[in-house]
Structure formats: structure tokens, C-alpha cells
């Protein structure tokens, strides 16, 4: 049975579920920042997923990247699966823009955060869900 890590749940807004991943919006309006969480109980590392799930994860990362690129026109898309703070397998897809508060460094640990207003997060989550399913 799949369950979402408490920290991911606390730091994000739900967007939608794809074939493999639950898509979340990071509650930080400074960056268009999606988190994809494979809905596989106990998943910790990409290389431990079966071949089919690995391929699906890569397609869903590419899908999320295209949506972020189309909706936000960033200069760069950062994709990362760190797992140092949250062991549950999750992949960050972040649109970066030259001159953003952490550019050119990483967003993690930058000290820059600005949460969404709840209504803004819900509206953006719906816009993202619509875009993800339109391209899927």
C-alpha cells in the first residue's frame, strides 16, 4: 500500500496522479517546482525499480519537464533525486531562471522560500494537472 512521506505531504500541494507517480507542487512560489513520487511502497532508489517502472519514471520526468518548460519558460530545468532528507524515492523537476534567488546555485539549502497563498497553490495545481494530462 502506497503512502506519502510526512515531510513531502507537509511541504507540498497535490497536483495529480500519473501512471506511476504522484505529482506534487512544492510550496515555494519562487520556482516552478514539481516533485514526482513513484507510487511504490518502499521505493528508495531508481535503480531498484523494475525495468518497466524505471522507463515509466523517465517518461513522466520528461513529461513534467515539458510542462514546466511550456508553462513557465525557464532558462534551465533541474532534475534531481537526492533523498538525503526524505528517503522515499522522489524526483524534483524545477524550472530555473537566470537571476532567480539561488541562481546559479542549488535551490536546496539556499534559504529562499516563499509559500503560496492556498488559493494560488490550488489554482496552479489545477493548471499543472490539466497540462500534464493534456500532454500525456
Q: What form results from the Cα inertia axes?
A: globular
Radius of gyration: 14 Å
The number of E-state strands comes to: 5
Strand order of the largest sheet: 1-2-3-5-4
Low-pLDDT windows of residues:
none
| N-end to C-end Cα span | 25 Å
Portion in strands: 15-25%
Query: What is the makeup of the main sheet?
Result: 5 strands, antiparallel
The helix tally amounts to 3
Mean pLDDT: 97
Q: Which percent bin holds the helix content? A: 25-40%
The sequence of SSEs as H and E is: HEEEHEEH
Assembly status: single chain
Helix vs. strand class: alpha+beta
InterPro entries: HIT-like, HIT-like_sf, HIT_Hint
Protein name: HIT domain-containing protein
Give a brief rundown of this model:
The chain is of the alpha+beta class. It contains three helices and five strands.
What does this structure look like?
Residues 34-103 form the HIT domain. It holds the Pfam family HIT. This is HIT domain-containing protein. This protein is α+β, with helices and mostly antiparallel strands. The protein has a 5-stranded antiparallel beta sheet with strand order 1-2-3-5-4. The relative contact order is 0.22. Helix 2 (51-72) packs across helix 3 (118-135). Strand 2 and strand 3 (33-38) form a beta hairpin. The protein has 3 helices and 5 strands; from the N terminus they run H-E-E-E-H-E-E-H. The protein has helices spanning 6-11, 51-72, 118-135; strands at residues 12-17, 21-26, 33-38, 76-80, 91-96. It is 34% helix and 21% strand.
Amino acid at each position: 500500500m502506497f503512502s506519502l512521506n510526512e515531510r513531502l505531504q507537509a511541504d507540498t500541494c497535490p497536483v495529480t496522479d500519473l501512471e506511476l507517480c504522484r505529482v506534487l507542487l512544492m510550496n515555494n512560489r519562487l520556482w516552478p517546482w514539481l516533485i514526482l513520487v513513484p507510487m511504490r511502497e518502499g521505493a528508495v532508489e531508481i535503480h531498484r525499480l523494475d525495468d518497466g517502472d524505471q522507463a515509466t519514471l523517465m517518461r513522466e520526468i520528461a513529461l513534467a519537464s515539458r510542462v514546466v518548460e511550456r508553462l513557465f519558460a525557464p532558462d534551465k530545468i533541474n532534475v534531481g533525486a537526492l533523498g538525503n532528507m526524505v528517503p522515499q524515492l522522489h524526483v524534483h523537476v524545477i524550472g530555473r531562471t537566470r537571476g532567480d534567488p539561488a541562481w546559479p546555485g542549488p535551490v536546496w539549502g539556499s534559504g529562499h522560500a516563499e509559500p503560496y497563498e492556498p488559493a494560488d497553490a490550488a489554482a496552479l495545481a489545477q493548471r499543472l494537472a490539466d497540462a500534464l494530462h493534456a500532454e500525456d
